[in-house]
Fold each of these.
Amino acid sequence: MNFFFEVLIGGLLSGVMYALVALGFVMIYKASGVFNFAQGAMVYLAALSVVGCMEKGAPLWLAIILAFAIMTAFGIATEKFVLRKLVNQPPIALFMATIGLAFFIEGVAPMVFGSEPRALELGIVDEPIPWVLDNWNMVISKFDLVAAGVAAVLVATLALFFQYTRIGRALRAVADDHQAALSIGIPLQNIWAIVWGVAGFVALVAGMMWGARNGVQFALTFTALKALPVLILGGFTSVPGAIVGGLIIGASEKLAEIYIPPVMQDWFGGNFGGIEGWFPYVLALLFLLVRPEGLFGEKHIDRV
Amino acid sequence: MLYREAGQFKTTYAADQQIFPIRQDRIGVIALLVVAFLGVPLFASEYWFSAILIPFLIFALAALGLNVLTGYAGQLSLGSAAFMAVGAYAAYNFQLRVEGIPILVSFICAGLTAAGVGILFGLPSLRIKGFYLAVATLAAQFFIVWCLTKFPWLSNNSSSGVISTQRLIIFGHELTTPVEKYLLVLAIVVVMALAAKNMVRSATGRAWMAVRDMDVAASVIGIKLMQTKLLAFAVSSFYCGVAGALYAFCYLGSVEPDGFSLEMSFKILFMIIIGGVGSIMGSFLGAAFILLLPIFLDIALPFFADLFGLPFSSATVSHIQITVFGALIMFFLIVEPHGLARLWQIAKEKLRLWPFPH
């Protein structure tokens, strides 16, 4: 039972890491209706630019500020040169454009900052917390706990930002209805630039957490793929959905990885590890059959 | 002037309904086929066959399959490589386990197997659409590749799922040279492309397009959504499956599950975006473009590097390739969302008046 809880908590905490990436998707989807496939590439770009700046001799805080500047500039450029030209195109076209954008970043970022895998030192060690280890005999990583804390702070900040600031209200208005927002004088294009900036910030946080954990390398772009089932489980438009979805996916995939392969081995023989790779997708798929709009997504009504 | 339908009167329904209604198109297609079947084998070198022409035709077939699903029926799929994998492994297993099965029959069976799997993974499309569906098809991508790696029966107990395909024997004649393989692939692709062309202008194709444009409206006018969508998944997967079988048997000869990666699915998706979403010819143009671009960059980049005295490592070249790829996708979507096929259409309209545009 102890082992079960250890796996469960480990899974929940790693789910928070997925949620961090998923949040970036939700931000952009909420405000502009674009499903931004490049979010994973943005995470990679953010982590790379932090590491790159530190290699050039900048201290950590300066590197973070520089990376944030890069992400913001990048977001604004994306809005200006790609999305603005694609206004009124079907959402699928925008989605495909962001796939192109992802490739673009994956090509440019390593050319600028170098492609070899590097470590990112944030001063948090990835080791078990002694107190928990002594009292309950469970291995809970200190780093995962910090990541969960960061995610909680990030979500709270975003929630406050959306709820109480002028820009946040404008963002919600745009998310509700572009035309109506335009007609009451909200500058749509500025708002989109801000959204991409915020998404860049979320990508920066996610990139630093993931980079510190697994090293800054190309594999960071795959975090986006892990975030997709989280998204469809939680609903594209919901910030709490991203968190809850992340927790569910994280916990269930770790539990599945531990408990399903032995059963399959009994049935078929052979080695069935690596279930983690597809389990979240199948879980999300089955879930969608029951609730097509995700846990917290808005119910979609079709009109002819 | 030269390309004009004026004066071509149709006096029978059969003439009115034929697949290429304009005489110039018919001449063009026949000329193209003659060149492809007779001209190319005479002049192309072995390298051309095995490195460019065969993969081009195979990927064009896969792109055609995806185009049926995404371009005509409007169901975005990110799992086409997985259906190719199903086709490849199914063809291998039919050859292996069914005594004396002709190779073409096993290709068809491979396509049908892929179609079955496609229907299975198409089931969610009845409930979900758009991006949710795209993510759902990722489940197919990862799950199928995982299955092929982990179940040793599927790859006849080879390590890590690598299979080496059997010999290609058709009517007692073994195909060994690239030219023969090319002709086999070409024949299959031509037949299937014509079938697709006919399918999309039939009632089925019109139903697909209605569903693509708005599925609720389509169901209101009496199109059965379930049948239509699942048929699109089946046909698309059939095409991808046959393409996968050809990929294994005629192109590589030995494949592993991880070769059919998500990257390949994206490649096929890019082919239809660049070629033209919802266009049969676009699948071919897109496949040619996506396959030739890396080869072109491989040749062009060192040349530019020499020209400007820049040291390009192979890593840089691959990064530039990815960058150019991404930039081109965005460029095409912005400038010409309908792809290369649309450019050809515009050219045809210009040709109608050429050389006296006024």
Note: The longest helix of chain A spans residues 2-32.
Amino acid sequence: MKFIRRALLALSVAGAIAAALRVKGKGGVPPQQGGWRDIASPK
Amino acid sequence: MIVVAGTGLVGTHAADQLRRRGHEVRSVSHNTVNEVDPVLTEVVLLAHAGDHVRTARRFLEAGCHVVSVSDDTKDVLALLDLHGEALAAGRTLIVGAACSPGLSGLLVSYLGAKFESFDEVHIAVHGTGGPECARQHHDVLSGTALGWHEDDWLRRPAGSGRELCWFPEPIGSRDCYRGDLADPLLVKHAFPHVARISARTSATRRDRLTARLPMLTPPRAGGDMGALRIEVRGVREGQRAVEVAGTAHPMAQIAGSVAASAAHELRRQAHFGTPIAPGVLALGDASLPNNDILDDIMQTGIRIQAFYGVH
């Protein structure tokens, strides 16, 4: 029982840390259209 | 003769590139670089782990041009402080000639030419070169990240400021975070007028959680696939505009090619009797032949791509 409680506590702490790390930050918006193309030599 | 100090992935690739261009190259390790006779050396390319400042000073004072691939913030600051020594010796020291910094400055110069004026530079980098570069990447997520924001240095905790950045394929989208990166210092050095500079590095949640611990898994000896994304914002035809360029190749290949091209150009210009201005320079600086260096890098097989479309 004690082991299960400790395991659950460890999992919830890890989950909370992961959630905080995941949520913090503004993320991003995928490019709406377009893509990457090779550029010509700058010379 | 060009001396390449460093026998890791970046140093080996740079030495190979220089030999292909017909230069006489001597590769030495970090431990034996001080045994090199500076009299016979025109250019020294420092591509070894650890600080470069002492070796750079020694070779500058002995009359050699120096190219450093260092991307450690403290080492880069110390190298920038060698400007007086470089001027007194009449020699050039190119600082941060790798991918980020290095290619980043060249791409800012390339993209900046598409504007009437530009005032924002945002850099994102993914991947690591050799094992030493991986250790450096591990450390950059645990310090203080520098950014330039409206006439002042902005200091934020490294590992903060998540942003999803799109790199050229096959890397694609990656979460990127502020890091203790040297790019803002060198972009500001090369483009003093820019009002906002940020630099981010890609990282996983595990990277961020373990940043303050010793590396849990040993870095891969063969290095990683790398990518660079440069976003420049400015004014064109009276309106705000954005230009994005980048590349995706093995990181050691990018860094080695940039370092080799910088060393090649230093030696080539000296031989043509049009030596590059003495002093400490960052790639992208107006006194460097940036388009020649970028063209030379592209000749080595590095594909530079621009993003076309709606961001």
Note: Residues 151 and 195 of chain B are 7 Å apart (CA to CA).
